[in-house]
Amino acid sequence: MKEKREPNIAPSAEAPLTAVGRLLVDEPTDSFLNMAIDESLLLSCQRGNEPSLFPAIRFYQWSTPTLSLGYSQRNSRTVARDYCQMAGINVVRRITGGRAVLHHRELTYSVVARSDEPPFSGSISETYRLISRAIVGALASLGVTAELSGKEGSHTLPTSPMTRSPCFYSPSRHEVVYQGKKMVGSAQKRLRSSFLQHGSILLDFDPQLLLLATGQQPGLRLPERIASIKEILQREVSPDELIEGLVASFQQTLGLRLSPRGLTPSEEEEARRLREEKYSQDAWNYLK
């Protein structure tokens, strides 16, 4: 694995820190390894051999623009495969559900934790809401007044009936929006007593690239439904600046003291195996 960065963070003095969580901040890496690491963490959490390592919160980027597909999406209906190959856009299928996400000019987060222990012992909906609250808090520290979709008085735009449209085209309940425009796309996978939730936070946005990669028509008018941090603030925000805000907000929202720690040797070995045997294989990535 590539060497991890340790962000310039400290626990919030106001946070009621009741537990310890693991913080992983990765250098940009390839799409197949990114998905393999997330699954490796989920399997490690489910086994419960080292409970002190969870919750684990990971922030990462992609070394190559990547279109990630939801677990059940049919590639032939979702991906403009010839264009992606020509443009150098990788395609990978997630173990989480949802629709296609273009990972480009963004920061991805993942949360892996027990679903039968605090702070994530509530329902799936409550878990989404809790994580989204942490993200909203981080965005507020940057000057972005985001909110959760679906709450009373929110500005959320109507949900799209188009099942082939990209993930960011319409928000689900408890996702993060700005004046009705979606900013964060998230998806979750649950095992018996653990879960993985990961999602894309837009630093910037290239609507044309997303349309071309997914073979969509320009009539989707993506800029009317999608907002990036750069568009809102009219300035560049670096991944490290966003990570620092996220770490502080996750600690305060969840009552966690996040300690920078990498993968265990067994997690690293499993991630490499999953990359080679699963995520880099067309048999996994290209459903007919």
Provide an overview of this structure:
- The protein is α/β, with parallel strands linked by helices.
- The protein has one domain (19-285): Bira Bifunctional Protein, Domain 2 (BirA Bifunctional Protein, domain 2, 2-Layer Sandwich), CATH 3.30.930.10.
- It contains 9 helices and 12 strands.
- It has helices at residues 31-47, 75-78, 81-87, 124-142, 207-214, 229-233, 239-254, 265-279, 282-285, and strands at residues 19-25, 56-60, 66-69, 90-93, 101-103, 106-114, 147-148, 176-178, 181-182, 184-190, 194-202, 256-260.
- A 6-stranded mixed β-sheet has the order 10-11-6-2-1-12, sandwiched between helices. A 3-stranded mixed β-sheet has the order 4-3-5, with helices on both faces.
- Strand 8 and strand 9 form a beta hairpin.
- Helix 1 crosses helix 8 and helix 4 (124-142) crosses helix 7 (239-254).
- The longest helix is centred in the middle third of the chain and has 19 residues, at 124-142.
- The two termini are 32 Å apart.
- The model is unreliable at 11-15, 152-163 and 165-171 (pLDDT under 50).
